[in-house]
Amino acid sequence: MDRLRVTGYHRRLPHLVADEMGFFAAEGLEVDYHITTFAPDHNKGMAEGRWDFTLSSADTMIARTTTDGTDYILFLQAEEGLSATLIGRPEITGISDLSGAVLAGDPGDSNLDLIRRKIMRVGGIGEDAYEVDIIGTSPKRLEALLEGKVSAAMLAPPSSQKALDAGCTALAEADDYVPGWPRTCGWGLRGWVEGHRKLVVRFIRAWEAASDWALNSANRKAALELLMATGGLNRDRAELAYRQLVPKAKINRAAMQTVIDLRIELGVYAPPHSPPERFYDTSYWCEATGLLA
Q1: Among candidates 103, 132, 110, 84, which has minimal Cα distance to 244?
Q2: Average confidence (pLDDT) over 65-73
Q3: How far apart are CA 73 and CA 22, in angstroms?
Q4: Residue from 225, 278, 213, 215 nearest 251 by CA
Q5: How far apart are CA 120 and CA 115, in angstroms?
Q6: I need a surface site. Which of 23, 147, 154, 243 has the fewest CB within 10 A?
Q7: Confidence bin at 290 (pLDDT 50/70/90)
Q8: What is the mean pLDDT of residues 159-176?
């Protein structure tokens, strides 16, 4: 068995299925998965080669490539769409109430922090009108929100549901502002990925098999039950996560362009601007699936 060191924020449905149904084992892979809780640590560890690759946002990869100059390459896209909500404390009734407030954040210039910037700007509040406390991932942001340390936070399930159950207020749904977001993707340092092509292809093949299994209508009920049992999601959130699966983990060029466009719009991607093809390589996926990109 070949061991892969992989990181990310949650084990997504194909990962759960690949473990449960033996798709990783069938490819001779042992996936050692590290759950990260603080984006700066994730980004630093990735740049240092602490893990072989990550299963996380394409936006994070594009941000670190274009801002930090770290040479990453993306090789699969697992999910498309955002399951995240801007949630305020019970006394917050609308986005306008957040002027002058302290909000929870994580990376600062990418992923959900970037979506928060978009939501706040549409609501008429620029970055100079509120403060951001870089706290960590959704569970950490939820803790700060419930303790009253921040007035609002972008939260993903199940943290978002816990906040709402505690009486907090849903202010905006991320997917309404940036639809078609490439949320969970496989990417790593270009040098490592290119030097371990066969391993990456085997991982993609296992992930594709798990995605095919989950999206087979005969397995839908079992897949949803697996999500609810291991992910702490209620039925509605599990259904949403299921709908966001990308068939065969195929990379969507248009989704990558969405990230680039938003980063340009919000002023966090300085020119010259590259086309999406700079950031991904479909040849690994083609080799794994036997299909054309």
Answers
A1: 84
A2: 96
A3: 27
A4: 278
A5: 9
A6: 147
A7: very high
A8: 96
